[in-house]
Design goal:
six-stranded mixed β-sheet; Rossmann fold; globular; 9 helices
């Protein structure tokens, strides 16, 4: 499990330290650096997948993330032409990667000595990893198949495009974390547990998967109770958007790492709060979850899980990103509020999920004539 990370000369960060916990939530206004933190982890994994690490360099463009050229990665006010990522795991295993800057390249050369081989056995680099980006696959008549991604790597795709194939292969396997079992589900099998948790978003949801291996395509259909199955394109957008997240969480065993962007997308407030609760439960049983979110409902779902004793407050890390101008240059500042046993947060910096309070104060004022 990742314990901390330090970014130097990378995008908006001159030298920024981040602490990680089993559940780490990133929030803040747009374009303040939240995605950049996730991208730093994805760049390391992507470079390892492209066989550039441990010995060669950093791949700025690939399947997981596309930065562009080196000038897009270097901190604008950098005093040295070197980008550095430092990652420490909870067992004190440390990886330090320094990369030389060269303006017109899309692969940065490794400047530091190779890290300990044990680093590349962690969940950041092995198959116990899921990343779902903000722009996931919405309702489609058909979904892709990939034996390599699903059977060999155990992946859902960064857009969740292989979720149907993953469920068709693994749907009748028991979920590995008993703490995530939905008690009213028909069984502890993955598919039944997914349906039960999907019921928190859309009650009574049932999933039918049909495959056409001749053309490497699959279809998803949804039904409710005894209704006839509906095509995914005829069901609410949020169902298909949420499905990969629920599958990734329920299929992950202890020690896995999940990176999620905007898990609240296309969900109503109750569903967003339940998503926060599910992610908190995953963190309570050994899965490390890093979330980028703009949803106060997701945060409140986590707070309620802490308040209900489902997750220890020491397992939650909040980071709020805000941008300030210093000496004519935009600088990102990171504030890290703490949560207590009652689910209360010790500080609420301006912009930290406070828009409802601001709107309410205005609504309490008498309306003008």
């Amino acid at each position: 499990m990742i314990h901390s990370m330090c970014l130097k000369n990378f995008k908006p960060f001159a030298d920024q330290f981040f602490e990680f916990k089993p559940l780490t939530l990133l929030s803040g206004l747009n374009s303040t650096g939240k995605s950049s933190l996730l991208q730093s982890l994805l760049l390391l994994r992507q470079s390892h997948q492209q066989r550039l690490l441990p010995n060669t360099g950093l791949a700025l463009n690939g399947e997981l993330v596309n930065i562009g050229r080196a000038q897009d990665a270097l901190f604008e006010g950098a005093k040295t032409e070197e980008i550095c990522f430092e990652v420490v795991w909870e067992n004190s295993l440390e990886g330090i990667w320094r990369f030389n800057y060269a303006q017109e390249v899309d692969v940065l050369n490794l400047a530091s000595l190779p890290v300990a081989p044990g680093v590349y056995q962690s969940s950041l680099f092995n198959n116990k990893f899921h990343y779902l980006q903000a722009e996931r696959i919405g309702p489609r008549p058909f979904f892709e198949m990939s034996d390599f991604q699903v059977r060999q790597l155990g992946q859902l795709g960064v857009r969740g495009e292989y979720t149907a194939h993953f469920l068709s292969i693994n749907g009748r396997q028991l979920i590995p974390n008993s703490s995530l079992r939905y008690p009213e589900a028909k069984s502890w099998d993955l598919i039944d547990q997914v349906e039960a948790w999907m019921g928190e978003v859309s009650p009574g949801t049932r999933i039918t998967i049909n495959s056409n291996p001749d053309i490497d395509l699959m279809s998803l259909q949804y039904s409710y109770g005894d209704s006839n199955p509906y095509r995914a394109t005829n069901v609410g957008f949020g169902i298909t958007y949420t499905l990969p997240i629920i599958v990734a969480v329920l299929a992950s065993e202890p020690g896995a790492l999940i990176l999620l962007e905007n898990p609240e997308a296309h969900l109503h407030p109750q569903g967003q709060a339940k998503m926060g609760e599910l992610l908190a439960l995953a963190a309570s049983c050994g899965v490390q979850v890093v979330i980028e979110t703009h949803s106060d409902h997701v945060l409140n779902g986590i707070r309620l899980a802490v308040h209900g004793g489902k997750l220890e407050p020491k397992y939650v890390q909040l980071h709020y990103f805000q941008r300030q101008e210093k000496l004519g240059q935009a600088v990102t500042e990171v504030i890290s509020p703490r949560i207590d046993r009652n689910g209360r947060i010790d500080q609420w910096p301006d912009g930290f999920f406070d828009e409802w309070d601001k709107s309410l104060e205005m609504l309490l004022e008498p309306a003008g004539e």
